[in-house]
Amino acid sequence: MWPDPSMQAAALHVLFFLSAGLILYVYLGYPTLLSLLTHGPKHQTPLPSQSFPRVSLLISAYNEHSVIAEKIQNSLALDYPRELLEIVVVSDCSDDGTDEVVKEFTCQGVILVRQAERLGKSAGLNLGVSQASGRILIFSDANAIYRLDAVRQLVRHFDDSRVGYVVGNARYVETIGAEPSAESEGLYWKLETWLKQKESDFGSVVGGDGAIYAIRRELFTALLPTDINDFLNPLQIIAHGYRGVYEAQAVCYEEAGDSFEKEFGRKVRIVSRALNAIHRAPAILLPWTQPRHWFALISHKLLRWFAPVFLILLLLTTMFLWHSAFYRMALVLQLFFYTLAATGWATEKRKTASKILYLPYYFCLVNLASLYGVIRFLRGSLSPTWQTIRQEARTSPDPTVHSPKRES
To answer: What confidence tens digit (pLDDT) does each residue in 247-266 have?
Structure first.
């Protein structure tokens, strides 16, 4: 027998307010609550360390011929004792001349670790770590240009024996004539950066950042090809009782994707592999393991990844309840928002498009990518390899980087 119509209506009302409440919590409630929870005393920032542990900087690269020389020169110029900074470039079977460029720097102590076949970033890091000699491992991307004091800023936190990993501050470069996708990603990343700082103050920052994060060598766990190292390793470290710190002064610069489509693919890959990381480290979902990190993980990551499900439920329940004036207004507002997003999609190639168009479009694109990432995870469709999403044309983001000029 079908449920009583009044019970159906009641269920739809509950589902509407539950979906709306979860969406509001993800984007407004959690940031507000986190701000209130971190209003009191914070973890004291350690003073600059007088000890300099040996550090291995592992740079992941696949077909990065256009940027690898600048990255290596930037790494060689870092303000850290040169004899204690090991630079290791891990090439995932690059075939565009990347390895030949790296070999030009071997006389300066740069180490090239090449995979004989393309197995992906995680497999490459297993190989790179096995040949690294540092007590502290710093993971970076070939396009991430570090501020000169970045390594010092990361390493100083390891004087605290409770700290297992430190995440740096990756900033997006705003290039002349940037696509709306890059500007939208920059705005999105500002919120992410703020959340990282608050989570670090509250307990532990959730996850790492492939462009700039460091861990204790003994806490590195061998990765499967489909693992996402900057999310799985931090989860494993948290499960061992350590905490993760965000260091805003450890700065690096990189560019966002040059189109919405490329950003979409990147976010799908991140979400699917991050969910797989949680599946690989299930103990992290037990609230008593580390309650504060658990709260941040659920609020910041899991609920946000499933936000598109809540958005779909919100729209569907509103449509079923449209006979009420309240729900008709809610439906009109949702349809208006999605109309703006659709218009933003239609005018994507116009670099002068208004933010009122491409920000709703970017919001929908991010949530669609999350939905597709969830589906890919459930289907077990995880790719171990990646493609660069950057334009070849780059600009030096900050005069303090002192990276070499590129030929035009």
So the answer is: 999 999 987 655 566 678 88
